[in-house]
Amino acid sequence: MIRSRLSRLYRSYGYLPYKVNKFEEYDLYAQYKNFLACKQILTFSDTDGRLMALKPDVTLSVIKSASDRCPVHKVFYNENVYRVPEDGDGFSEIPQTGLECIGEIGLYESAEVIMLAAKSLESIGPSYVLNLSHIGVVSGILNQAGIRQEDQSEFFAVLGAKNGPALTDLCRRFDMGPQAVSNLTALTELYGPTEDVLSRLSELSLPEESRRAVEELKELDVLLKAFGPARIHLDFSVVDDIEYYNGIVFAGFIEGLSSSVLSGGKYDRLVSRMNRSGGAVGFAVYFNTLESLWSTEKEYDFDIVLVCPSESDLPFAIREASRCIEAGETVRVQRSEPKGFTFRTKYYVRNGAVES
Amino acid sequence: MTEKKMINVALPKGRLGEIVYGMMEQAGYECPEVLNPKRKLTFENEERGVRYFWVKPSDVPIYVERGAADVGVAGKDILLEYSPRVYELLDLGIGKCRMCVAGPKTFRDDESRTLKVATKFPHIARRYYESKGRDISIIKLNGSIEIAPILGLSDVIVDIVETGKTLKENGLDALETIVPISARFIANKASFQFKHDEISAMSQSLSEICQTKE
Fold first, then answer.
1. φ/ψ of residue A169, rounded to 5
2. Model's pTM, two decimal places?
3. pLDDT interval class at A295 (50, 70, 90)
4. Which of A165, A166, A258 shows the shortest C-beta gap to B67?
């Protein structure tokens, strides 16, 4: 249901469905391992001896297939990926719906993808929040303070946990200036609707690179407003993977679910590593996390159970069952007393008549 | 969004949890029943918008990560060991101790051999020795760690040290400090979005209490 609703949404904004094979050559993933969320890959040998993999990720396949002829490649997919979940210790099949926009990515494309992420959440649950961040705001501060690339992920991890005390310790360890420390501390605390946070960001005295990132967020905000109202919050704790994402990143939450159900952002680095021109922006919705939303327990297994012990009554029972089914009921016809399931009402068919 | 939402609080069973409840009470989230549980499992003060429950200290991050509790209090040792995906909003400055490497007073590390380390915290131990480039083999135990080096099961242990008294009694010494430990106020990432005002207010009041304590 939700999957078809999402597909309709993406189609209506001009995205084309994309279907991948269940398997890809293992080489593809080995080459770009750094860009995979899950480094473990389920492999097997094909009949011709090639090492194949059950795909752990769809994005790589999408980029591989994107032709350079078209300036912008817009697709969406409904696929299963095979990964080891963070809290699990075996491979799982994870249903995923995603959307990718590859090629010449400008402000419009970014805004459109963010808006579609918000609309996706809206169609899953009415109460949602899309948290938006820009990696450049944080990395601008870190770059100016002379923090090396390989040390930056530690800062992002601490920001990701909104861990103020640990941030202070970390800044001390790297001997950062008071301006950088106060800026980073402010970023751990900033959270809220885009407008409010943007106005508070303009009060900070940020380095040039960060200011450019804030400027981009402002320009995006203008376009997002034109798309219509959406619950988008700025939150600098959205910084999952700085090796993968650059620029904007976002994560979506649905009320009643304990972790994020959607994540995405701009990932130009992977595109250029795969020798394609331009950049990319996209997101994925994790359907495994949504399961608990739908587990509304049904009161009973069937509405009606028709018990028809005698063979001669069967034609009557069939007509009776069809009539109920047409009226929208679920009906189970039984030759003997029902056992092992629940139902609303039970009828007996005897001598061409229904009795309760 | 104007309606006030209930916050589910996971408290760690034991002395630390009682101190934490004391701070919550001071912060205006009182619910005296909590200290006298009898048979009840959850305790509610609807007016103050809180619901408490006691869980095993090492389970607090699990309850919070999975959203059964919106917030909770857990030791940094447990957070480092399990790395749950939660927000770590506050250092409460209580339950202070150290994660240490301990061993016989006479211990000398022979770097030509694999070091045998007994611990309840295999991830912390592995990460620490990896950062030093030392090859170790981990022996995961669930209690009475101090006995391991005495019986020759391991060369050293990685464990929490509060006063060092237990170690001394067993002829052991804290050899290196890995990281200082204290209790942290943690929050579920999704709850933080949907109960933002309530959780922020709680965090703010607790932080004020921490400051007056210092």
1. -60, -45
2. 0.83
3. low
4. A258
